[in-house]
TrEMBL record:
This is Glucosamine-6-phosphate deaminase. One of its GO terms (biological process) is glucosamine catabolic process. It comes from Rubripirellula amarantea. The gene is nagB_1. Pathway: Amino-sugar metabolism; N-acetylneuraminate degradation; D-fructose 6-phosphate from N-acetylneuraminate: step 5/5. Transmembrane segments: none annotated. Its EC number is 3.5.99.6.
Length: 242
């Protein structure tokens, strides 16, 4: 993978939003793959700022989010849908009918996950997929052990992911134990991938992903099989790279 290391988290976010904004300006009808979590918040802030400045429209784009907690409605404050509404969707000119995120309340999960994959294909595939990385190397909610060919499906969260995500909930017991997540196979079909990682908690996972063997024990290392991946890192997240 290509590695771009900069000093601060804000510089890393700016590099990432530049890549996305340049693609949107060149091809407004693009399909975006989007991520939640703390890391991409400054990326979304930057895209919102460009929209306010009048230099960026996202009106023609289609989007697919990586994942959603199973059992949470889209208007539940801790759902990923609510996160995206708050940090991006409500603040820019995106067309709601072209926004896609798994439905945490879907009842026929097999049909729902298959339809999600079909919708990605019908949109022509994802042109640029934004990713974060878990400190255990997960991408989306593909925890260690997830197969390279996995598709959108229901997944179990590991206890360290539940622990990490409990910061958004009142109590750790409130964190859902399962999620709907794009698979690694789904992610690897995106035409271009940008993984943003900042802070010391990501340094080991970044090292394993970039310089370790490509295998299921570090899901992000499977990105080594993709021809166009860029890791954008701040100094702390890149500190263990040799
Ligand atoms: C988010 C997602 C996760 C996060 C990862 C890092 O949609 O799928 O894989 O990217 O857990 O989260 P933060 O950025 O909060 O450290």
């Amino acid at each position: 993978p290509k590695v771009v290391s900069v000093n601060s988290p804000s510089e890393a976010a700016e590099k990432t939003s530049n890549m996305i904004a340049e693609m949107l300006v060149a091809t407004p009808r693009i399909t975006l793959g989007l991520a939640t979590g703390s890391t991409p918040i400054p990326v979304y802030q930057d895209l919102v700022q460009r929209h306010r400045d009048g230099t960026l429209s996202i009106a023609e784009a289609t989007s697919f989010n990586l994942d959603e907690y199973l059992g949470l409605a889209g208007d539940h404050p801790q759902s990923f849908r609510a996160f995206m509404d708050e940090h991006l969707f409500r603040l820019v000119d995106m067309n709601v009918s072209r926004i896609h995120i798994p439905d945490g309340l879907a009842t026929d999960l097999d049909a729902h996950t298959k339809a999600y994959e079909k919708a990605i294909a019908a949109a022509g595939g994802i042109d640029i997929q934004l990713l974060g990385i878990g400190s255990n190397g997960h991408i989306a909610f593909n925890e260690p052990g997830s197969s390279r060919t996995s598709r959108t499906r229901v997944v179990e969260l590991t206890s360290d992911t539940i622990q990490a995500n409990s910061r958004f909930f009142d109590r750790a017991e409130d964190v859902p134990r399962q999620a709907i997540s794009m698979g690694i196979g789904t992610i690897l079909e995106a035409k271009r991938i940008v993984l943003l990682a900042t802070g010391p908690a990501k340094a080991q996972a970044v090292k394993d992903a970039v310089q370790g063997d490509a295998n299921e024990s570090c899901p992000a290392s499977l990105l080594q099989y993709h021809p166009d991946v860029t890791f954008v890192l701040d100094a702390e997240a890149s500190s263990l790279l040799q």
